Amino acid sequence: MTVRPLNLPELGLLIYLLRGTPQAAQLLSELHTAEVAELNTDSIGSLRFLNHMPNRHLGERIASTQFLDEDSVPVFAALYLDQHGELYELDCWKPNDAPVVRIPAF
């Protein structure tokens, strides 16, 4: 598992998703130091946010959106928190199970 910072397209998508959520101020302030691991090596966009808390698991979905990929197939994106209210996972997928090619500028 490769750990890395967010790239610009991911950061733009996350800022877009977090706008207007009750936790926006706190979560947006943490993005510049966020470390992530890609969940799917043949596609882009699905990420797990890493931190040092043990026994983390999926909590609530706090935001979602959709956009068109380069092949004109819709991409669905959902952002989840863990059970402690920390960023946990960004999930991006296509209904045809094809890999996501590109996250557009948001």
UniProtKB/TrEMBL annotation:
Domain DUF6984: 4-104
Name of the protein in its database record: DUF6984 domain-containing protein
Gene source species: Hymenobacter oligotrophus
Lineage: Bacteria, Pseudomonadati, Bacteroidota, Cytophagia, Cytophagales
